[in-house]
Amino acid sequence: MTKKILMNQSVAVLCDGNNIERSIHEESGNTSTMINFDTVIPKLLSERGLNRLIYFREGKNISSKLAERLHNQFYGSVVPCHKSADIPLSIKATQLASKVDTIIIMSGDSDYIDLVRHLKSEGVRVEIAAVNKTTSRMLKEEADHFHPITRSDWFAFNAPKRRSPQKGDAKEDAAVAQKKAEMEAEKKTKPAPKVKSE
Description:
alpha/beta, Rossmann fold, six-stranded parallel sheet, two-stranded antiparallel sheet, 8 strands, 41% helix, 22% strand
């Protein structure tokens, strides 16, 4: 009789947003492509428990919708970084090392090689998730596992088109403007109310 083995691992996913975005933009040839966290995170977890999801993003121009979505779906957070995400991500990974079994770094940047080595020396399983073509070979070799991010893991965001005015809209706008003009004209032609003097 075969028993199912339940994995009860706690996983932190730390995403270098700028690195992942640049990689998928380069691979897709489209700067409006975005990572689909709804499909990527469950695939990375592979039935393990999510402890944290933190998206590190350089700059101040961070989508509030992305932050809201990550929070609502995964209790995730977005951390704005002054310059590069490397240092804040590395600090957070070091802080989490004693609290999780596995850290998944979503980046292909070779700057994380020393971090991977350090985390592994602390007994943490380290996995890398990134676009294969733009991921450092040495980073893949240092990691315990590599998850390739492929075309099925992103989508092209097309901003909703603005609704063009309908033919009826212009007529309605003209009618409203006409009515306002008539009311203003009527106010001007009415005599002012007389004030009683005592």
